[in-house]
């Protein structure tokens, strides 16, 4: 696999800038050789790593991810090598079948979480950024030449709840509801949950369901391995004594130790994410208490579908939105407003696959009438600063 790790390209000038456009039409004769056209992943401004010509996208720091993979593979390898044969013969042949199914499911959900775009929102092009700046300036009156205290906040109403959209100084956009800027990957991510070093990626709108499946299946795998290993040791110790049984199968002891120490945190995490899923919240919102009643009696989660089953369905079975990053697309020679497939809706809030982003956004708005129907599939409020 070919890997490429690259430096941050100055904030928003990627495509088309001197370095990024080898095909500048201005001086065709001056170019001795035509370079291969660059793909957009090669000029992606966030701190990400891409493999397989942009098909695989991860965070830049992946050391802990490889540790996770090694821990799962080695522990399961020991299990299949030392415990499985004994248990298949002396207990039931279903043990290796269940083990393989759990292992394959866990690994595929892990890799799907780690290798996919979590829901990164493309940064504004220079034109788009200038457009937003102009809009910010207007409500401010005469802009001071030096510092301009900005009303860099917009408000939208989602299901009767007023939500603030903050301006991201790095991405030069107003973050859509529920989005947040990951300081590790340096990207704004839709329905940002958290950055998970164990999976080597952000967890957001596009990979949360796989992350949740991974945590659940890993918890199951861990309990299963632990139960099998203990059974194996006990069955052996019935024939000899306990110490001898452990000497006969030292791998089982190692597996038991690994499972024992990891199963508690994994079970806790699985429980926590089950709570989040059933209430349609993100880790980010839960930590900040975005929908906590401590913030006021009227504060409630506008994204809740009104029931545990409905929330699970919305989070885990809703339609998957396509990536907003055209990672494998070619960098065009000239930056034009059509560079990205995204468009602005005239308020500085990107329109993409957010579903219906409220259009009546204003800078200072008294509690607005929830005019629009409840067609918001995603969205949120307060976002941590970048
Ligand atoms: Zn951002
Ligand atoms: Zn991240």
From TrEMBL:
Residues 31-41 have a biased composition (Basic and acidic residues). GO terms for biological process: protein targeting to membrane. Its EC number is 2.3.1.225. It is a multi-pass membrane protein. GO terms for molecular function: protein-cysteine S-palmitoyltransferase activity. GO terms for cellular component: endoplasmic reticulum; Golgi apparatus. Pfam families: DHHC. Keywords: Acyltransferase, Lipoprotein, Membrane, Palmitate, Transferase, Transmembrane, Transmembrane helix. Residues 14-30, 358-386 have a biased composition (Low complexity). Residues 163-288 form the Palmitoyltransferase DHHC domain. It comes from the Eukaryota. It is found in: Endomembrane system. The chain crosses the membrane at residues 64-82, 94-111, 210-234, 254-276. The keyword Transferase applies. The keyword Metal-binding does not apply. It catalyses: L-cysteinyl-[protein] + hexadecanoyl-CoA = S-hexadecanoyl-L-cysteinyl-[protein] + CoA. It is an enzyme of class 2 (transferase). Its main location: membrane. Belongs to the DHHC palmitoyltransferase family. The DHHC domain is required for palmitoyltransferase activity. This is Palmitoyltransferase. It comes from Branchiostoma belcheri. The lineage of its organism: Eukaryota, Metazoa, Chordata, Cephalochordata, Leptocardii.
